[in-house]
């Protein structure tokens, strides 16, 4: 993309809740412009376009993928459609920001990464947690040895529900279950700090439809570090996280995947609280991942150092391993 172009032109593929939240943050960025939206129906696309003042609305995904005025497409479909939707855009030469979980499984993720590299296009998983300034500061402290060697990571993400069997979170055809929708956050948090685990253990409670209603995971690393992680569709959890090291601990008391504070505890010292700055905006803001995408595009980078593709592939391998342990498979998966 030419460096002299001030604004980055976005296309939005899908019109659900997360698409609306991301677009609302995009339109507030002075150097971002949402120029097109696509849905499976023209009516849905037009309604979304009118809501956000988007000039073009398409009733089919391919029309957006072929729109040469679009610099980057944000794919916000259910993860069961990520391979198809993101692949369509990459095939057409578009750059892509794809929601998490990145895909339904690791094989699909590998295919998208290979396609992006073949086309020379930018591709990034929309793991907004990795772009959050406080998470970046936490990771910097941990990797800098502030708490010594990491011994344990704990994180949870649960929603109270109840979700009826017809809800997308209970639908196997849409990759339903707690793991891919919520569990991706605790897993990604642990792997941000420790990398890919050497061993994965898991137990789950499954619904009548065959998706996981809640899942507990125990990950281990050759270093001796352990991660105890949990996700649930049947109980609202504190969404807290803690990282314990040989010389201290970091606690995120709530909302660990978009925190507005964390507390550093070190042996022999008073606790130190880190809070979000005024420039960081609200804790629910998705703008940080949008800014990182635009920075990468202007720099001519085809992947983000904050959300590297190897890291997304590693998380998908872990999620595959968890599903293998608990017996969850989805129709239409590539085997």
Description:
- The chain is α/β, with parallel strands linked by helices and 335 residues long.
- The protein is built from 9 helices and 14 strands.
- It has helices at residues 17-26, 42-52, 61-65, 82-91, 106-119, 133-143, 178-194, 287-299, 309-326; strands spanning 8-13, 32-38, 56-58, 72-75, 95-98, 123-125, 150-158, 199-206, 212-220, 226-232, 241-245, 248-252, 261-266, 272-275.
- An 8-stranded mixed beta sheet has the order 8-9-10-7-11-12-13-14, with helices on one face.
- A hairpin with a 2-residue loop joins β11 and β12 (248-252).
- α4 (82-91) runs parallel beside α5.
Task: Provide a short characterization of the protein structure.
The chain has 335 residues and is an alpha/beta fold.
Q: Which helices and strands occur, and which strands form pairs?
A:
Blueprint: E1 8-13, H1 17-26, E2 32-38, H2 42-52, E3 56-58, H3 61-65, E4 72-75, H4 82-91, E5 95-98, H5 106-119, E6 123-125, H6 133-143, E7 150-158, H7 178-194, E8 199-206, E9 212-220, E10 226-232, E11 241-245, E12 248-252, E13 261-266, E14 272-275, H8 287-299, H9 309-326
Helix pairs in contact: 4-5, 5-9, 7-9
Give the N-to-C terminal Cα separation. Answer: 37 Å
Catalogue the unreliable spans.
1-5
Kindly report the spatial arrangement of strands forming the biggest sheet: 8-9-10-7-11-12-13-14
Major sheet description? 8 strands, mixed
């Amino acid at each position: 993309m030419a460096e002299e172009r001030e604004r980055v032109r976005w296309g939005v593929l899908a019109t659900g809740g997360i698409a609306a939240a991301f677009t609302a943050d995009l339109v507030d960025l002075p150097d971002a412009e949402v120029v097109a939206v696509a849905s499976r129906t023209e009516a849905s696309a037009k309604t979304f376009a009118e809501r956000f003042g988007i000039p073009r609305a398409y009733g089919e995904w391919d029309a957006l993928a072929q729109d040469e005025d679009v610099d980057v497409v944000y794919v916000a479909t259910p993860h069961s459609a990520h391979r198809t939707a993101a692949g369509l855009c990459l095939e057409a030469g578009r750059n892509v920001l794809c929601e998490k979980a990145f895909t339904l499984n690791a094989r699909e993720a590998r295919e998208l990464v290979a396609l992006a590299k073949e086309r020379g296009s930018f591709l990034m998983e929309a793991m907004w947690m990795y772009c959050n300034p406080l998470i970046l500061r936490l990771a910097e402290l941990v990797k800098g040895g502030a708490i010594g060697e990491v011994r344990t990571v704990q994180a949870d993400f649960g929603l109270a529900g109840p979700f009826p069997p017809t809800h997308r979170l209970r639908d196997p055809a849409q990759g339903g279950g707690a793991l891919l929708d919520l569990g991706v956050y605790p897993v990604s948090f642990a792997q941000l700090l420790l990398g890919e685990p050497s061993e994965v253990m898991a137990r789950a409670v499954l619904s009548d439809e065959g998706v996981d209603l809640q899942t507990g995971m125990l990950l281990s690393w050759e270093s001796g570090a352990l991660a105890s992680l949990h996700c649930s569709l049947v109980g609202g959890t504190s969404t807290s996280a803690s990282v314990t090291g040989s010389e201290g601990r970091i606690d995120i008391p709530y909302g660990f995947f978009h925190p507005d504070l964390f507390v550093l505890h070190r042996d022999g010292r008073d606790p130190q609280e880190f809070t979000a700055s005024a420039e960081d905006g609200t804790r629910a803001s998705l703008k940080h991942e949008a800014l990182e995408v635009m920075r990468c595009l202007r720099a001519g980078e085809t992947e983000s150092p904050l959300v590297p593709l190897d890291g997304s592939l590693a998380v998908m391998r872990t999620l595959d391993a968890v599903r293998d342990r608990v017996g969850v498979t989805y129709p239409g998966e590539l085997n």
